[in-house]
Amino acid sequence: MTQPKNPGPSGPGGPDWVTVDSQRAGQRIDNFLMARLKGVPRSRVYRMLRKGEVRINGRRCRPADRLAAGDRVRIPPATTAGSSGGPVPAAVQRQVTAAILFEDDTLAVLDKPAGLAVHSGSGTPFGIIEALAAARPGVEWGLAHRLDRGTSGCLVVGKGAGATRALQAAFREERVDKAYLALLVGCWEAGQQLVEAPLRRGPERDGQRPMVVDPEQGRPARTRFLTLRAFAGHTLVRAEPRTGRTHQIRAHARHMGHPVAGDPVYGDPEANGALRSLGLERMFLHSAEVTLPHPVSGQPVSVKAPLPEALKAIMERI
Questions:
Q1: pLDDT computed for residue 81 by the predictor
Q2: Could you give the angle at the alpha carbon of 207 between the alpha carbons of 202 and 61, nearest 5°?
Q3: pLDDT in tens, 107-123
Q4: Which residues face 141 on adjacent strands?
Q5: Which residues partner with 183 through β-bridges?
Q6: Which of the two residues, 259 and 6, has the higher pLDDT score?
Q7: Of 177, 120, 167, 124, nearest in space to 142 by CA
Q8: Among 9, 25, 222, 247, which residue has the least CB neighbours within 10 Å?
Q9: Phi and psi for 274 in degrees, rounded to 5?
């Protein structure tokens, strides 16, 4: 097939043609687009891919397709959600940089605050990445993985395209050990249990498509739960996801009949209301530990994030 020549930008409002350099080789097209289209909602990026508005060497592509050096990518015009939101507030920039637990020349691990998204989009004008870029504009920051907006704790970011790709590969290939602390509704009597329940996207509900267990069509998903402390009506557990599915811990906890306390999507409304009266204003899910191979040396890097004081207070009250 004859590949199209790179015509460059086609004028105001027209698509751009971008040639992939060696630094971006191997990157997924969806991640490539989101790095270039800062502030464009993720839903818009995936819609462009579904509709065939994005092309690689003139051909339609899927989100997981990987780029090669020299590929020519057609990028349609897109409006950024954050373009009218103004700059990232200085207080947020300070909050995010103060949350860095570990940093070297190639990566950083932050203690992400609950309530702050990892990136802009879907009506969110800025997130962790935008705040880091505003505070330290000389660094090419990139997400190695994602945490839900309501989850706090260890978030890994790369510094430079090569480091970010290496970190993303480590997460994708399940070479990263993660451990979360979660307060579950009810008494988790299993003690230690490996939950193996395939997950897939379910039907839309309240503007979201939560994950559902589906042994036939779901993708493999495994989470190890370990009881740490029992309370009246609740259980503190250590949750170790062995795979990296969306909302995996939350969906598996709900599947086992013990949803995460405060979870607005998979949770128990009555239990959540009772916990709100005790002061729980967020989901009780915290990324407490992460161990990953360093993108340059390959040596293990281990970082821990302490449980937030607000969550400790909830445990004292129950």
A1: 40
A2: 65
A3: 999 999 999 999 876 56
A4: 159
A5: 236
A6: 259
A7: 167
A8: 9
A9: -65, -40
Which of 2-6, 73-77, 282-286 comes out lowest in average pLDDT?
2-6
- The residue with tokens 């051909």 is 59
HSE-up (13 A, CA, CB side) for residue 42: 11
Judged on CB neighbours under 10 Å (0-12, 13-18, 19+), 244 is middle
Q: Are the beta carbons of 38 and 126 closer than 8 angstroms?
A: no
pLDDT in tens, 158-186: 999 899 999 999 999 999 999 999 999 99
Catalytic residue, from 148, 177, 206, 263: name it: 148
- By the 10 Å C-beta count (0-12 exposed, 13-18 middle, 19+ buried), 128 is classed as buried
What token pair was written down for 7?
């015509």
Do 76 and 48 form a contact (C-beta atoms < 8 A)?
Answer: yes
Kind of pairing between the strands at 300-304 and 285-293: antiparallel
- Which residues are within 8 A (CB) of 57 and not within 5 positions of it... i.e. 6 or more apart? 1, 3, 4, 71, 72
* Tokens of residue 197, six digits: 């329940």
In the chain, at which residue ranges do the beta strands (DSSP E only) sit?
Answer: 16-19, 55-56, 59-60, 72-75, 100-103, 107-112, 141-143, 152-159, 177-185, 192-196, 199-201, 211-213, 222-231, 234-241, 285-293, 300-304
HSE-up (13 A, CA, CB side) for residue 33: 32
Q: Evaluate if residue 136 carries a pLDDT over 90.
A: yes
Q: What is the DSSP string of 248-298?
A: HHHHHHHHTT-PBTT-TTTS-HHHHHHHHHTT--S--EEEEEEEEE-TTT-
Is 148 annotated as catalytic? Answer: yes
Among candidates 317, 277, 304, 315, which has minimal Cα distance to 183? 315
Residue 77 three-state SS? coil
